[in-house]
Protein backbone atom coordinates (compact mmCIF):
# COMPACT_ATOMS: atom_id res chain seq x y z
CA UNK A 1 0.00 0.00 0.00
CA UNK A 2 2.85 2.36 0.85
CA UNK A 3 4.45 1.74 -2.50
CA UNK A 4 1.17 2.35 -4.23
CA UNK A 5 0.87 5.70 -2.48
CA UNK A 6 4.39 6.65 -3.52
CA UNK A 7 3.66 5.76 -7.15
CA UNK A 8 0.54 7.88 -7.00
CA UNK A 9 2.49 10.87 -5.73
CA UNK A 10 5.08 10.43 -8.47
CA UNK A 11 2.36 10.27 -11.14
CA UNK A 12 0.67 13.37 -9.69
CA UNK A 13 3.99 15.22 -9.79
CA UNK A 14 4.48 14.22 -13.43
CA UNK A 15 0.99 15.43 -14.35
CA UNK A 16 1.60 18.76 -12.66
CA UNK A 17 4.84 19.18 -14.60
CA UNK A 18 2.95 18.36 -17.81
CA UNK A 19 0.30 20.96 -16.97
CA UNK A 20 3.01 23.56 -16.33
CA UNK A 21 4.58 22.76 -19.70
CA UNK A 22 1.25 23.03 -21.52
CA UNK A 23 0.49 26.31 -19.71
CA UNK A 24 3.80 27.66 -21.00
CA UNK A 25 2.86 26.70 -24.56
CA UNK A 26 -0.57 28.28 -24.18
CA UNK A 27 1.03 31.48 -22.91
CA UNK A 28 3.30 31.69 -25.96
CA UNK A 29 0.49 30.86 -28.41
CA UNK A 30 -1.95 33.39 -26.94
CA UNK A 31 0.78 36.03 -26.99
CA UNK A 32 1.50 35.20 -30.64
CA UNK A 33 -2.17 35.55 -31.47
CA UNK A 34 -2.28 38.92 -29.71
CA UNK A 35 0.71 40.14 -31.73
CA UNK A 36 -1.07 39.08 -34.94
CA UNK A 37 -4.10 41.11 -33.83
CA UNK A 38 -1.89 44.15 -33.36
CA UNK A 39 -0.47 43.69 -36.86
CA UNK A 40 -4.00 43.40 -38.27
CA UNK A 41 -4.81 46.76 -36.68
CA UNK A 42 -1.69 48.32 -38.19
CA UNK A 43 -2.51 46.98 -41.68
CA UNK A 44 -6.13 48.16 -41.51
CA UNK A 45 -5.10 51.61 -40.29
CA UNK A 46 -2.43 51.99 -42.99
CA UNK A 47 -4.83 50.88 -45.74
CA UNK A 48 -7.63 53.19 -44.59
CA UNK A 49 -9.01 56.19 -46.47
CA UNK A 50 -8.95 58.50 -43.47
CA UNK A 51 -12.16 57.17 -41.93
CA UNK A 52 -12.17 54.86 -38.92
CA UNK A 53 -11.36 51.31 -40.06
CA UNK A 54 -13.74 48.51 -39.07
CA UNK A 55 -11.97 46.19 -36.64
CA UNK A 56 -14.88 44.05 -35.45
CA UNK A 57 -16.16 41.68 -38.14
CA UNK A 58 -19.20 39.69 -36.92
CA UNK A 59 -19.11 37.25 -39.84
CA UNK A 60 -15.41 36.48 -39.27
CA UNK A 61 -15.88 35.81 -35.55
CA UNK A 62 -18.92 33.63 -36.24
CA UNK A 63 -16.89 31.55 -38.71
CA UNK A 64 -14.04 31.12 -36.22
CA UNK A 65 -16.33 30.02 -33.39
CA UNK A 66 -18.18 27.57 -35.63
CA UNK A 67 -14.87 26.04 -36.69
CA UNK A 68 -13.75 25.75 -33.06
CA UNK A 69 -16.95 23.89 -32.17
CA UNK A 70 -16.70 21.60 -35.19
CA UNK A 71 -13.03 20.71 -34.56
CA UNK A 72 -13.20 20.49 -30.76
CA UNK A 73 -11.71 17.10 -29.77
CA UNK A 74 -12.96 17.25 -26.15
CA UNK A 75 -13.13 16.52 -23.30
CA UNK A 76 -14.36 20.10 -22.80
CA UNK A 77 -17.87 20.61 -24.27
CA UNK A 78 -17.95 22.60 -27.51
CA UNK A 79 -19.87 25.47 -25.90
CA UNK A 80 -17.24 25.83 -23.18
CA UNK A 81 -14.42 25.71 -25.72
CA UNK A 82 -16.15 28.39 -27.79
CA UNK A 83 -16.60 30.53 -24.67
CA UNK A 84 -12.87 30.32 -23.92
CA UNK A 85 -11.98 31.31 -27.48
CA UNK A 86 -14.52 34.13 -27.34
CA UNK A 87 -12.62 35.65 -24.40
CA UNK A 88 -9.27 35.26 -26.19
CA UNK A 89 -10.76 36.94 -29.27
CA UNK A 90 -12.26 39.69 -27.12
CA UNK A 91 -8.90 40.42 -25.48
CA UNK A 92 -7.12 40.48 -28.85
CA UNK A 93 -9.76 42.77 -30.37
CA UNK A 94 -9.28 45.18 -27.47
CA UNK A 95 -5.64 45.48 -28.56
CA UNK A 96 -6.81 46.48 -32.04
CA UNK A 97 -9.57 48.86 -30.97
CA UNK A 98 -11.24 49.06 -27.54
CA UNK A 99 -14.99 48.93 -28.18
CA UNK A 100 -17.82 50.63 -26.31
CA UNK A 101 -21.07 48.65 -26.31
CA UNK A 102 -24.31 50.23 -25.08
CA UNK A 103 -26.92 47.94 -23.53
CA UNK A 104 -30.32 48.23 -21.89
CA UNK A 105 -29.32 48.68 -18.26
CA UNK A 106 -28.78 49.00 -15.46
CA UNK A 107 -25.67 46.94 -14.66
CA UNK A 108 -26.53 43.35 -13.78
CA UNK A 109 -29.35 42.79 -16.30
CA UNK A 110 -29.73 39.87 -18.68
CA UNK A 111 -29.03 42.32 -21.54
CA UNK A 112 -25.58 42.97 -20.11
CA UNK A 113 -25.07 39.21 -19.82
CA UNK A 114 -26.02 38.91 -23.51
CA UNK A 115 -23.58 41.69 -24.44
CA UNK A 116 -20.73 39.95 -22.61
CA UNK A 117 -21.66 36.57 -24.11
CA UNK A 118 -21.45 38.06 -27.61
CA UNK A 119 -18.47 40.43 -27.28
CA UNK A 120 -16.55 38.93 -24.35
CA UNK A 121 -15.49 40.71 -21.18
CA UNK A 122 -12.88 42.99 -22.77
CA UNK A 123 -15.36 45.57 -24.08
CA UNK A 124 -16.50 48.69 -22.28
CA UNK A 125 -20.19 47.93 -21.63
CA UNK A 126 -22.26 51.06 -21.00
CA UNK A 127 -25.75 50.78 -19.41
CA UNK A 128 -28.59 52.87 -20.87
CA UNK A 129 -31.91 53.63 -19.19
CA UNK A 130 -34.13 52.82 -22.19
CA UNK A 131 -34.09 51.04 -25.55
CA UNK A 132 -34.27 54.29 -27.52
CA UNK A 133 -31.22 55.56 -25.61
CA UNK A 134 -29.26 52.50 -26.77
CA UNK A 135 -30.15 53.34 -30.37
CA UNK A 136 -29.25 57.02 -29.94
CA UNK A 137 -25.89 56.14 -28.37
CA UNK A 138 -24.93 54.08 -31.42
CA UNK A 139 -26.42 56.53 -33.94
CA UNK A 140 -24.39 59.38 -32.43
CA UNK A 141 -21.22 57.25 -32.53
CA UNK A 142 -20.81 57.37 -28.77
CA UNK A 143 -20.91 53.57 -28.86
CA UNK A 144 -19.74 51.16 -31.54
CA UNK A 145 -22.64 48.74 -31.01
CA UNK A 146 -25.79 48.36 -28.94
CA UNK A 147 -27.55 45.34 -27.43
CA UNK A 148 -31.33 45.26 -26.95
CA UNK A 149 -33.84 42.49 -26.18
CA UNK A 150 -36.26 41.64 -28.98
CA UNK A 151 -38.05 38.39 -28.12
CA UNK A 152 -38.75 36.03 -25.25
CA UNK A 153 -39.87 32.44 -25.78
CA UNK A 154 -42.55 32.81 -23.08
CA UNK A 155 -43.80 36.38 -23.49
CA UNK A 156 -43.24 36.98 -27.22
CA UNK A 157 -41.86 40.01 -29.06
CA UNK A 158 -40.70 43.23 -27.41
CA UNK A 159 -42.59 45.79 -29.45
CA UNK A 160 -40.54 48.82 -28.41
CA UNK A 161 -37.47 47.32 -30.05
CA UNK A 162 -39.34 46.51 -33.27
CA UNK A 163 -40.79 50.01 -33.46
CA UNK A 164 -37.34 51.61 -33.18
CA UNK A 165 -36.38 50.11 -36.54
CA UNK A 166 -39.15 52.09 -38.27
CA UNK A 167 -37.20 55.32 -37.79
CA UNK A 168 -33.63 54.36 -36.92
CA UNK A 169 -30.92 54.03 -39.62
CA UNK A 170 -29.10 51.36 -37.61
CA UNK A 171 -28.51 47.85 -38.91
CA UNK A 172 -28.88 44.51 -37.14
CA UNK A 173 -25.35 43.10 -36.96
CA UNK A 174 -25.94 40.00 -34.88
CA UNK A 175 -28.18 38.14 -32.47
CA UNK A 176 -27.68 36.44 -29.12
CA UNK A 177 -29.86 33.74 -27.61
CA UNK A 178 -29.58 33.53 -23.84
CA UNK A 179 -31.17 30.91 -21.64
CA UNK A 180 -32.90 32.84 -18.86
CA UNK A 181 -32.79 31.43 -15.34
CA UNK A 182 -34.58 33.34 -12.59
CA UNK A 183 -33.84 32.94 -8.90
CA UNK A 184 -35.58 34.15 -5.77
CA UNK A 185 -32.90 36.21 -4.04
CA UNK A 186 -32.51 37.93 -0.71
CA UNK A 187 -29.82 39.37 1.55
CA UNK A 188 -27.67 36.71 3.30
CA UNK A 189 -28.91 37.68 6.79
CA UNK A 190 -32.59 37.36 5.89
CA UNK A 191 -34.77 34.30 6.58
CA UNK A 192 -37.49 32.94 4.32
CA UNK A 193 -40.27 33.53 6.86
CA UNK A 194 -39.58 37.27 7.00
CA UNK A 195 -40.26 37.97 3.30
CA UNK A 196 -43.35 40.15 2.83
CA UNK A 197 -42.57 41.72 -0.57
CA UNK A 198 -40.99 40.52 -3.82
CA UNK A 199 -39.51 42.91 -6.40
CA UNK A 200 -38.95 42.17 -10.08
CA UNK A 201 -39.43 43.36 -13.64
CA UNK A 202 -42.88 42.71 -15.09
CA UNK A 203 -41.45 40.26 -17.66
CA UNK A 204 -39.84 38.18 -14.92
CA UNK A 205 -43.03 38.11 -12.89
CA UNK A 206 -44.83 36.85 -16.00
CA UNK A 207 -42.20 34.15 -16.63
CA UNK A 208 -42.42 32.92 -13.01
CA UNK A 209 -46.16 33.40 -12.43
CA UNK A 210 -47.11 29.77 -11.81
CA UNK A 211 -44.21 29.12 -9.45
CA UNK A 212 -44.99 32.26 -7.44
CA UNK A 213 -48.69 31.38 -7.23
CA UNK A 214 -47.76 27.95 -5.91
CA UNK A 215 -44.99 28.87 -3.47
CA UNK A 216 -45.53 32.52 -2.52
CA UNK A 217 -49.24 33.08 -2.96
CA UNK A 218 -50.40 36.21 -1.15
CA UNK A 219 -46.97 37.84 -0.88
CA UNK A 220 -46.95 41.34 -2.39
CA UNK A 221 -45.35 41.59 -5.83
CA UNK A 222 -43.93 44.98 -6.77
CA UNK A 223 -42.90 45.74 -10.35
CA UNK A 224 -39.70 47.76 -10.86
CA UNK A 225 -37.76 48.96 -13.90
CA UNK A 226 -35.30 46.04 -14.02
CA UNK A 227 -34.23 42.90 -12.21
CA UNK A 228 -31.02 44.65 -11.20
CA UNK A 229 -33.08 47.35 -9.49
CA UNK A 230 -35.09 44.61 -7.79
CA UNK A 231 -31.85 43.04 -6.52
CA UNK A 232 -30.63 46.40 -5.20
CA UNK A 233 -33.85 46.92 -3.25
CA UNK A 234 -33.78 43.38 -1.88
CA UNK A 235 -30.30 44.04 -0.61
CA UNK A 236 -31.26 47.27 1.16
CA UNK A 237 -34.86 46.79 2.34
CA UNK A 238 -35.74 44.43 5.22
CA UNK A 239 -38.49 41.88 4.57
CA UNK A 240 -37.97 41.83 0.79
CA UNK A 241 -36.73 39.49 -1.92
CA UNK A 242 -36.09 39.84 -5.65
CA UNK A 243 -36.44 37.76 -8.78
CA UNK A 244 -33.25 38.15 -10.82
CA UNK A 245 -30.42 36.23 -12.44
CA UNK A 246 -26.92 35.17 -11.47
CA UNK A 247 -25.23 38.40 -12.53
CA UNK A 248 -27.48 40.54 -10.31
CA UNK A 249 -27.09 38.07 -7.44
CA UNK A 250 -23.30 38.33 -7.65
CA UNK A 251 -23.31 42.10 -8.11
CA UNK A 252 -25.41 42.74 -4.99
CA UNK A 253 -24.16 39.85 -2.87
CA UNK A 254 -27.52 38.07 -2.58
CA UNK A 255 -28.24 34.45 -1.73
CA UNK A 256 -30.74 32.13 -3.41
CA UNK A 257 -33.88 31.20 -1.52
CA UNK A 258 -34.87 29.20 -4.61
CA UNK A 259 -33.07 28.59 -7.92
CA UNK A 260 -34.38 28.33 -11.50
CA UNK A 261 -37.96 29.30 -10.68
CA UNK A 262 -39.02 30.12 -14.25
CA UNK A 263 -42.19 28.27 -15.30
CA UNK A 264 -40.60 26.96 -18.50
CA UNK A 265 -37.16 25.32 -18.31
CA UNK A 266 -36.47 26.34 -21.92
CA UNK A 267 -37.13 30.03 -21.17
CA UNK A 268 -34.95 31.92 -23.66
CA UNK A 269 -34.57 35.56 -24.65
CA UNK A 270 -33.22 36.71 -27.99
CA UNK A 271 -31.19 39.92 -28.18
CA UNK A 272 -30.14 41.96 -31.20
CA UNK A 273 -26.77 43.60 -31.83
CA UNK A 274 -27.30 46.95 -33.57
CA UNK A 275 -24.60 48.91 -35.37
CA UNK A 276 -23.91 51.13 -38.36
CA UNK A 277 -22.26 48.75 -40.85
CA UNK A 278 -23.60 45.99 -43.07
CA UNK A 279 -22.32 42.48 -42.32
CA UNK A 280 -20.86 40.22 -45.01
CA UNK A 281 -22.07 36.62 -45.40
CA UNK A 282 -20.79 34.15 -42.81
CA UNK A 283 -22.20 31.02 -44.45
CA UNK A 284 -25.04 30.58 -41.97
CA UNK A 285 -27.06 33.78 -41.74
CA UNK A 286 -30.39 35.35 -40.99
CA UNK A 287 -32.00 38.45 -42.54
CA UNK A 288 -34.53 40.89 -41.07
CA UNK A 289 -36.74 43.23 -43.09
CA UNK A 290 -39.65 45.62 -42.57
CA UNK A 291 -42.35 45.56 -45.26
CA UNK A 292 -45.26 47.92 -45.82
CA UNK A 293 -47.90 46.40 -48.14
CA UNK A 294 -50.73 47.99 -50.06
CA UNK A 295 -54.11 47.56 -48.37
CA UNK A 296 -55.80 45.24 -50.86
CA UNK A 297 -57.14 41.66 -50.99
CA UNK A 298 -54.38 39.06 -51.15
CA UNK A 299 -51.67 41.41 -49.86
CA UNK A 300 -50.44 38.96 -47.22
CA UNK A 301 -50.31 36.12 -49.76
CA UNK A 302 -48.30 38.30 -52.16
CA UNK A 303 -45.89 39.05 -49.35
CA UNK A 304 -45.33 35.44 -48.29
CA UNK A 305 -45.53 33.56 -51.59
CA UNK A 306 -42.05 34.55 -52.89
CA UNK A 307 -40.42 33.08 -49.78
CA UNK A 308 -42.34 29.84 -50.29
CA UNK A 309 -41.52 29.59 -53.99
CA UNK A 310 -37.79 30.13 -53.28
CA UNK A 311 -37.79 27.64 -50.34
CA UNK A 312 -36.71 30.32 -47.86
CA UNK A 313 -37.57 29.49 -44.25
CA UNK A 314 -39.31 32.26 -42.32
CA UNK A 315 -38.36 32.27 -38.63
CA UNK A 316 -40.56 35.17 -37.47
CA UNK A 317 -43.31 37.41 -38.80
CA UNK A 318 -44.88 40.16 -36.70
CA UNK A 319 -47.37 42.93 -37.48
CA UNK A 320 -46.89 46.44 -36.08
CA UNK A 321 -49.04 49.59 -36.55
CA UNK A 322 -47.52 51.91 -39.10
CA UNK A 323 -46.63 55.43 -37.88
CA UNK A 324 -47.85 56.85 -41.20
CA UNK A 325 -51.60 56.24 -40.95
CA UNK A 326 -54.58 54.82 -39.06
CA UNK A 327 -55.19 51.08 -39.59
CA UNK A 328 -52.00 50.80 -41.66
CA UNK A 329 -49.52 48.11 -40.71
CA UNK A 330 -45.96 47.02 -41.39
CA UNK A 331 -44.62 43.48 -41.25
CA UNK A 332 -41.41 42.61 -39.40
CA UNK A 333 -39.96 39.44 -40.96
CA UNK A 334 -36.95 37.27 -40.09
CA UNK A 335 -35.83 34.58 -42.51
CA UNK A 336 -32.84 32.33 -43.08
CA UNK A 337 -30.24 33.44 -45.61
CA UNK A 338 -28.20 36.54 -46.47
CA UNK A 339 -29.32 39.42 -48.65
CA UNK A 340 -26.41 38.65 -51.01
CA UNK A 341 -27.69 35.10 -51.63
CA UNK A 342 -29.16 34.77 -55.12
CA UNK A 343 -32.36 33.10 -53.90
CA UNK A 344 -32.88 35.86 -51.32
CA UNK A 345 -32.28 38.53 -53.97
CA UNK A 346 -34.90 36.94 -56.23
CA UNK A 347 -37.49 36.63 -53.45
CA UNK A 348 -36.99 40.21 -52.27
CA UNK A 349 -37.28 41.51 -55.84
CA UNK A 350 -40.76 39.92 -56.06
CA UNK A 351 -41.74 41.34 -52.67
CA UNK A 352 -40.53 44.82 -53.62
CA UNK A 353 -42.62 44.71 -56.79
CA UNK A 354 -45.81 44.41 -54.70
CA UNK A 355 -44.87 46.36 -51.56
CA UNK A 356 -45.14 50.03 -50.77
CA UNK A 357 -41.75 49.88 -49.05
CA UNK A 358 -39.17 47.26 -48.07
CA UNK A 359 -36.48 48.15 -45.56
CA UNK A 360 -33.50 45.84 -45.16
CA UNK A 361 -32.69 45.88 -41.43
CA UNK A 362 -29.66 43.65 -41.72
CA UNK A 363 -28.22 40.27 -42.57
CA UNK A 364 -26.15 38.74 -39.78
CA UNK A 365 -24.74 35.44 -38.46
CA UNK A 366 -27.36 33.07 -37.09
CA UNK A 367 -27.20 33.00 -33.31
CA UNK A 368 -27.29 29.78 -31.27
CA UNK A 369 -27.65 28.99 -27.59
Automatic annotation (TrEMBL):
Domain ACT: 288-365
Stretches assigned to the Prephenate dehydratase domain: 100-276
Keyword Protease among record annotations: no
Recorded metabolic or biological pathway in which this protein acts: Amino-acid biosynthesis; L-phenylalanine biosynthesis; phenylpyruvate from prephenate: step 1/1; Metabolic intermediate biosynthesis; prephenate biosynthesis; prephenate from chorismate: step 1/1
UniProtKB keywords: Amino-acid biosynthesis, Aromatic amino acid biosynthesis, Coiled coil, Cytoplasm, Isomerase, Lyase, Multifunctional enzyme, Phenylalanine biosynthesis
Stretches of the chain forming a coiled coil according to its record: 5-32
Record has Isomerase as a keyword: yes
GO molecular function ontology, one term from the record: chorismate mutase activity
BP terms from Gene Ontology: chorismate metabolic process; L-phenylalanine biosynthetic process
Site positions per UniProt: Essential for prephenate dehydratase activity: 269
Location(s) in or outside the cell: Cytoplasm
Source organism, top-level taxon: Bacteria
Annotated function: Catalyzes the Claisen rearrangement of chorismate to prephenate and the decarboxylation/dehydration of prephenate to phenylpyruvate.
Protein name: Bifunctional chorismate mutase/prephenate dehydratase
